[in-house]
Amino acid sequence: MFKNFFLSELKYSLKQPMVYIFLGLMTLFTFGATVSDNIQIGGSIGNVYKNAPYIITIYTTIMTLFGLLIAAAFYNNAALRDYNNNFNEILFSTPLSKPGYFFGRFFAALVLSTIPMLGVFLGVIIGSTLAPIFGWVGADRFGSFYLETFVNNYFLFILPNMFFAGTIIFAMANKWKSTVISFVGTLIIIIGYIISGNLISDIDSETIAALTDTFGIRAYTLYAKYYTPIEKNTLTPGFSGLLILNRIVWIATGAVILLSSYFSFSFQEKNKKIKAVKEDKKELKQLFTRPELSPKYTRKTEWKQFKSFFLINFLSIVKSVTFKLLFLFSAIILISNLVGGFEYFGLQSYPLTYKLIDTISNAAGIFVIIILVFFSGELIWRDRESKINEVIDATPHTSLISLSAKALSLVSITVVLHAFFIFCGVIYQLANGFTRIELDVYFIDFMLTSFLTYIVWSGVMIMIQVIINNKYIGYFVSIMVIFVWGLMLSIFDVESNMLFIGGGPSLMYSDMNAFGPSLKAGLWFNAYWVLGSFICLLIAGALWNRGAVSSLKERISTAKKQIPKSYRLIIIGTISCWIAVAGFVFYNTQVLNSYKTSEENEQVSADYEKKYKKHENSANPKITDLKYFIDLFPYERNVTVKATMTLVNESETTIDSIHYTTIGSNWETEIKIPNAVLVLNDTDLDYRIYKLTKPLKPAEKIEVEINTQYNSEGFQNGMENTGIINNGSFLNNFEILPALGYQSRKELNDKNTRKKYDLKPKDRMPKLETDCSENCMKNYLTNGASDFINVETTISTAGDQIAIAPGSLLKKWDENGRNYYHYKVDHPSQNFYSFMSAKYEVKSRKWQGIDIEVYYDAKHPQNVEMMLDAVERSLAYYTKNFGPYMHKQCRIIEFPRYATFAQAFPGTMPYSEAIGFVINLEDEEENNVVDAVIAHEVAHQWWAHQVVGAEMQGATMFSESFSEYSSLMTMKSISKTPMKMREFVKYNHDRYLRGRGSEIDKELPLYKVENQSYIHYGKGSVVLYALQDYIGEEKVNTAMKSFLEAYKYQKPPYPTSLDFMKQLEPQVPDSLKYVINDWFKEITLYDNKMKKASYKKLENGNYQVIMEIESKKLLADSLGNETPMKLNDWIDLGAFSDSDEEHLIFEKRVKIDKSEMKFTFEINEVPAKLAIDPRHLLIDRIYGDNIKTAKELLPEN
Amino acid sequence: MHKLIINSLTKTYSNGVKALDNVSLEIENGMFGLLGPNGAGKSSLMRTLATLQEADSGTATLNDIDILNQPKELRKNLGYLPQEFGVYPRITAEQLLNHMAVLKGITNSRERKELVKYLLDKVNLYDKRNKNVKGFSGGMKQRVGIAQALIGNPNLIIVDEPTAGLDPGERNRFYNLLSEVGKDVIVILSTHIVDDIRELCTKMAIMNEGQIVFQGNPQNAIDELNGKVYQRIVTREELDDFATNYAIISNKMVGGQPLIHVFSDTNPENGFELVKPNLEDVFFSKINTSNALV
Domain range holding B253? Predict the structure, then answer.
C-alpha cells in the first residue's frame, strides 16, 4: 500500500511540469552565480574556487531556503490534491491503509521536493564546465569536484531540510486543508530561521544560534568559520561536530511532528462545528418609509465615495487573516531583534532613536514588500473575486476614485504597521530607561524613507495588476520588478537613482548632523517618485477593467473614447509636473554633479596606472613645511583652502618637473609653482605635470602655493560629500590638497578585476628586505612625498562652531561673525592629519603639562569623563614604558556616524559618534572596548607618529600591532583578574582566525604583514600579548622602547620589522627562542586538547589533579595548508575552581614535547575544570576542547 | 414616461460568437420580460445596457442619455442586479448597502440611513442587518442584491435571472416589490423561466442566438397560437419518426412517456389532441424553428 501511494504520487508529479520548472530555476540560479560575478550567492573571492566544496555547500544551504517554496508546493499537493478535487470522499471510503496513504504521500513529496534542489549541483557543474570554455571566468578560478561534496550536501542539508519543512507543511495542510495555511507553515519556518539568527549577538551565543537554526546554515558557518582558502577548496562538510548535532536535533523534531500529525490524521471528515443558532432578537416591528432621495453628483460626492471605498478596503485588509499573521510575524521579528539589544563587543549601546529606526526598517522591510505585493493583487481582484464587480462597476463613480482609495488603503496598512513598530521602539527605549525619545526623528525618517517607498510601490504594483489583468501573473511580474529590475541595472552598470524604483540617496540620521547632506536630494527624489506613483495610478485608473473582461487593447480604445477632458488634464498636468521635477533631478544629479559608475571608476584607475605608472619612481621634491589657510563654510557646505608648501629636492639628481595627482573634478585646483609651466593636464585621470624652467638642484628649495576650493551645488545622485557638512565636518589633508607624484594607492587591487583590464596581479607591498636603504626611503603613510614636517594652520568656521587643526592653539579670534583659529604642530610630524569643525562641547583635564581634551556633541556627555580617564591612563603607561609624549595636547574629537572608526593624527584623535560616545558604560567598572579603542589611538602617538615603517612588508606590525598591544597592556593594568583579559583577547583571536579564512590573496607571517588587518590587529596583538606573558612585560616593553629610541623622528631610511626583531631577540631567553620564529616569522597554529580531566582527594586534604592532554603544533602556508611540526613548547596547564572559568586557582607552564602527555599536580582546592592554555594565549582554532570538567576519581578500596 | 430605445446593437466576441445581432427594441415604463435560452445573448444585452460592455455598432438611449457614450450619466439612473451577485467578505449587510448608497450619490447620511433600513425591511433582512453578509444563504444574498438594485431613484432597473435560488415565498415577495417600483420606471427582467414573464410582464421579447425573435405582448403571442398546438404521448421508439414528420415544438417526459407538442394549422389526427397554448409553447415555437428534439 505504501509502495502504491509512493509510486503513484511520484509518477503523477513527474508527469507535471512543476518539478522540472523548479529544477530548471535552481540550475539557472546557481549556473548564473557560477559564471558571473554580478550574481552573488554566498560568493567566492580571491583564492577560493568558484566551485569549491565550501561554495557549493553555501549555495546548497542558501538555496534550501528558497527550496521551502518548492517544499510547500509538493507537500501541499500531496496532502490536499484529493480534497481540492473533491475526490476525498470517494477515495477515503475505499478500504485503504492509513499508514500507506499518509507516509506514501509524505515520502513521495519528500523525494520530489529534493529533486529541484539537485539543480544547485547541476548549475555548478554546468557553470564550471562552460565558463572557462566561453571565457566568462578564467579556468584558474575552478578546482576539482569531489563526489563527497554532493553526497554529503544532499544528506546533510537537502534531505533533512526538505524533511523538516515537509513535516510542518504536511501536518498543517492535513489539519486545516487549506493551501493558504500551508504557506503560512512555510512562513513560520522562515520566521524561526530569522529569529534564531537574531540570537547571534556575540561570539558567546554562536553555538545556540547554530543549534537553533532549522536549516543548518549557521551551524555550517560556525563549523567552517575558521576555514582557510585551501580548506574551503578541499573540505566537504562531514557528519560531525555541531553540524551533525544540529541535523539530528531537527530531524528528530521533524519526526515528532510527523508522527503526531499521523496519529491525529483521520479519513473521516471532521464534523464541522455547527454554531448554535442564536435567536435573533425580535425587534419591535418598525415601520419604514422610503425617504425622499436627493442623489447628488458633486465633488463632495466623490470625496464621500472615496472615503467609503477606502474604509471598505482598509477594513477588509485589516480584518484578513493574512494581514493579522504578517503583522504578528513582523512584530515577532522586531521584538526578537530588540531583545538582543545593540551589542558592541560585549557592551550595549544606548537605544538611540536612530538605532531603533535602523532596526525597524530591517524588520519592516521584507514584510512591507510582502504586504504590498500580496494586497495589491488582493485589492485589485477583490471585487471580481467576490463577484460584486458588476454591481460596483455599474454605479456612477469614477474608476480613479476607487483605485486611489485602494492605493491609499494599501499605503495606510503599511503606515499602521510602521506606526506600531515605532510604538514598540519607543516602549523599548522607555523600558531601558532611555528618555531622549525623538518622535520627530521617527516621524521625519518615516516620511522621507519608508513612506516614500510604500507610496511608490503601491502605485507601481497597482498599475502592474491593472495592466496585466491576471492576478497571479501580476504577482509574478511584481516580484520580478522588485528583484530583477535592480539586478538588471547593475549588470548594465547603471547607477542613477532615477531608475531604481523608489531610489534616492540613502539618508542616515546622526545625532550630530541630523539627516545630513543628502536631505535635499532625498526630498527631490521623493517628489519625483511620488509624482511617478501618481502617474501609475492615473494610468491604472484609465485602463481599469470596468465591466466585462476585455483585453488591454480594448481597454485602451475604451479609455481613449470615454476618458473625460478633466481626467486628461489631470494626467497631462501630473506628467508635466513630473517631467519638470525629473528634469531638475536629472540636471542636479547628472549634469551639475556628474558621477562615475563603479565600472567607470575601475576604468579610470586602470587607465591611470597604464598611463602614469612610468612616473612612479621619478624623483620628486619633498614637502618640509606646510602652512594652511582654510575657510570652512559648514552651512553652505563649501571649503576654500590655500596652502603654501616648501618643497626641497632631497634627491641627488636635478629635478626638472613636478608631478601632481589632483583630487578629482569636484575640487577646483590651482597650483602656483614659480618658474614652471603646466605641460600636462589630464583632467580625466587627474594628473598634472609642471615643467620647471629652472630645474631644482639637489638641496634647493621651492615655495609652491596651492588653492583648492569645494563648492556644493544642488544635490547628488549618491551619498554627498560627508567631509564638509553642517555639523561635524571632517577633512583629511589628502582630501583637500593634490598629492605629489604618482599615487599607487589609486591602482586596482583585486587580481580578478585587474585581469579584466589586462593588468598583471600586483604585489600588495614591496618584499621585506634586510639592511635596505634605497627601498626604505618612503614610509607607508606618506608615500615618499614627505617625512616629518612642520605644519601650521589658520582655520575659520561658522560663528557657532569650533574648528580644530593639529597642534597647539596659538590664537583665536572673531572676524565678521566667524571664528578663526591658529594652530601649530609642536613637533615635526607625519603629513597626515585632519581638520574638523562642529558645534562642540569641550571637557578638558591637565596631566603633566598636557591638555587632555574631549570635543563632543551636547547630546553625548555620558562617557566623556571615562574617556579622559582612558587617555590619562594610556599616557601614563606609555610615557613610563616607551618615552615622552611629543605634543602639548591630546584631543578626542567626535564626528558623525557616516564612518565608524577612530583614527590617530598628531595629538588629535577623531572618534566616530557611533562607537564610544553612545555605548552604555554606566555599569562598566573594568576595562572595556571604548577604553581599548582610545588606548589604541593614543598608542599611535608613539607607534606610527614617532616611528613609522618603511613602505614594505611588516610595516604595520609596529604601528597597528604595537598599538593594539599597548592598548591591551593598559587594559591589563586595571584588570582585577587574569581571566578578564581572556574575555578581551578572544575578540582578537576571532578576528585573526576569521580573517585568514577570507584572505583573498595569501596569508603572511606577522613580520611580513601586508597591511592585512586580521594579521596586524588580530594576530599581532595575540602574539605580543602571549609574548609578554612568556618573557615578561618589561622585556617586551624594553625591546619596543629601544627600537623607538633608535628610530623616532629619524630621517629615512625608515625601519623595517627586521629592525625590531633585532631589538627583540636579546630580550628572549634561549629556551623561548623558538617563539620568535614560530609566532613572528611563520604561521603557526596550535591544536591543544584536554583529553581527560580528573582529580582525587588526597589524605592530606589536598587534591591531586590528573590531566591527559593532546597537543599539536602546525605550520601553515600562505593558503592554509598545514604541516605538523615537532613539538617542544612551553604551554600552561591550569585549574579553575568554578565552572564559569572565572577563578584560576592553579597554573603551571610545562614543557610539552610529545603529542600526548599526562600530568599530575597537587593543589589545595577542589577543581571544577582543568585546562590546557587556560588563559588562551596560543592561537588555537578549536579552543573549546582545551577545557574539560574535572571528574572526581573515587578512592579505590 | 421613460423610454429606452435600442437600435441595431451588434456585438461579436473575439472568439467569433455573435452575442448581439442587430438587436433593436423600444421599451417604456413597466416590466419588460426578456426571455431566451441559455447563451441567447440576454446577459450580453443586459451588460451592454448596464454600461459594462461595449457594443461594436448600434446605439442605445435612455431618454436623452446615450448609453454607450455617456456611461456615467446612465449609471446615475441605473439599478442593476447581475446574474451572479456576490458580496464582500467581512462586511455586514447594512455596511454593504450603505457603501452602495454612497456610490449612488446618496450623500445625505440621514437619507441614506433611512433608505438602507427601508430596503432591508423590504427584503425582509432588517433583523439580520448586522450580520456578516458573506455568511448569508444564497436566497438571502440575492435579496441583498435586490435591495441594492433599488437604491437611489433609478429610471432603469435591470435584473438578470433574479429568482434563481429563491424559494417560492421569496420569489413572490420579490416580484411584488419589483412591480411596485416598476409602475413608474423601466424594469427589464431577464429570465429563462417562462412563468415569471407571464405573471409579471405586459411586454416581452424573446431572444435566440443574439437576435430578437419576438417582441410584443405575451397574451397576444399566446392568442396567435390558439388552435394550432397539438399534443400526443408517444413511445420512445416513435419519437424520431414524429420529429421528422411533424413540426415539433417541444418534447418532455410525462409519467415516463414522451409528450410532444407540435405546431399545425390543421388537426394532424394520428392521436393528436388540440391543446390550449401557453407561453412555453410560444417560447419554444419561436426558438425551436428547426423543429428539433431537445
Answer: 223-287
Listed residues B184, B216, B248: the one ending a domain: B216
Span A1079-1097, pLDDT tens digits? 999 999 999 999 999 999 9
Q: How far apart are CA A1008 and CA B255, in angstroms?
A: 108
Q: Is A849 on the interface with B (CB under 8 A)?
A: no
Contacts of A283 in chain B (CB under 8 A): 126-127
For A299-331, the pLDDT digits (tens) are 899 999 999 999 999 998 888 877 887 787 788
Q: What's residue A1044's pLDDT?
A: 96
Q: What are the tens digits of pLDDT across the range A289-302?
A: 888 888 888 889 99
Q: Could you tell me the pTM of the whole model?
A: 0.82
> Do A588 and A663 belong to one domain?
no
Beta bridge partner(s), residue B78? B156
Q: Which of residues 1-40 of B touch A (CB under 8 A)?
A: 14
Domain membership flag for residue A982: no
Pairwise CB contact (< 8 Å): A387 & B85: yes
Tens-place pLDDT, residues A1002-1039: 899 999 999 899 999 999 999 999 999 999 999 999 99
Is A301 part of the contact surface with chain B (CB cutoff 8 Å)? yes
Mutation pick from B12, B46, B47, B54 vs chain A, by most beta carbons of A within 10 Å, is B54
Q: Tell me how close the Cα of A456 comes to any Cα of chain B, in angstroms.
A: 27
Residue B262: strand, helix, or coil: strand
What residue of A is the nearest CA neighbor of B141? Answer: A388
- Domain boundary at B171, B194, B216, which? B216
Considering only alpha carbons, which residue of chain B is nearest residue A554? B54
Q: What is the pLDDT of residue A307?
A: 94
Mutation site, B66, B69, B87, B88, interface A, largest A CB count within 10 A: B88
Look at chain B and report how many structural domains it folds into.
2
Q: Are residues B78 and B107 in the same domain?
A: yes
Q: Which long-range contacts (C-beta less than 8 Å, at least 24 apart) are formed by A177-184?
A: A177/A80, A177/A83, A178/A80, A179/A76, A179/A80, A179/A84, A180/A321, A180/A322, A182/A72, A182/A75, A182/A76, A182/A79, A182/A80, A183/A72, A183/A76, A184/A325
Could you report the predicted ipTM of this complex, rounded to two decimals? 0.90
SS3 A1103: strand
Q: Looking at per-residue confidence, does A90 or B114 come out higher?
A: B114
- Residues of chain A numbered 369-398 and touching chain B (CB < 8 Å): 382, 386-388, 390-398
Q: Which residues of B touch A307 (CB under 8 A)?
A: 102
Q: What domain range is A486 assigned to?
A: 301-592
Mapping DSSP onto H, E and C, the string for A481-513 reads: HHHHHHHHHHHCCCCCCCCCCCCCCCCCCECCC
